[in-house]
């Protein structure tokens, strides 16, 4: 299994299960609790934001793909990278507060800029020690 941005391995995404090592594992979950790990301390709201610009050539190829059908893989790559970067930034801010988990995580996506040429991805949640 590989490491994931939620802590643990891909098989433990958001689940809070498995063997946890406080030095290396950090749980990120959209739920408001972690099974078997009661919250001992709430440390506050944390956020991570990433803004990415759209590439002109990527826009052209995505437009063509929209006309003929199919998925816009280049956009999906950028979106995935931006999401992981926002989660990483949120996790780092939580760790600075002494947290070992972030619960109630919400991901938001928004097109910004005069022509929607940039995308903002934000991740927010509650930093906790569980």
Write the layout of secondary structure elements.
Layout: E1 27-28, E2 41-53, H1 56-68, H2 73-96, E3 101-112, E4 118-129
Parallel strand pairs: 1-3
Antiparallel strand pairs: 2-4, 3-4
Short overview:
The chain is an alpha+beta fold and 130 residues long. The protein contains 2 helices and 4 strands.
Provide an overview of this structure.
The chain has 130 residues and is an alpha+beta fold. 28% of the residues lie in helices and 30% in strands. A four-stranded mixed sheet has the order 1-3-4-2. A hairpin with a 5-residue loop joins strand 3 and strand 4. It is elongated and about 45 Å long. The N terminus is likely disordered.
Q: Can you summarize the main beta sheet?
A: 4 strands, mixed
Shape: elongated
Q: Beta-strand percentage? A: 25-35%
Number of strands: 4
Question: Order of SSEs, N→C?
Answer: EEHHEE
Strand order of the largest sheet: 1-3-4-2
Low-pLDDT stretches are 1-23
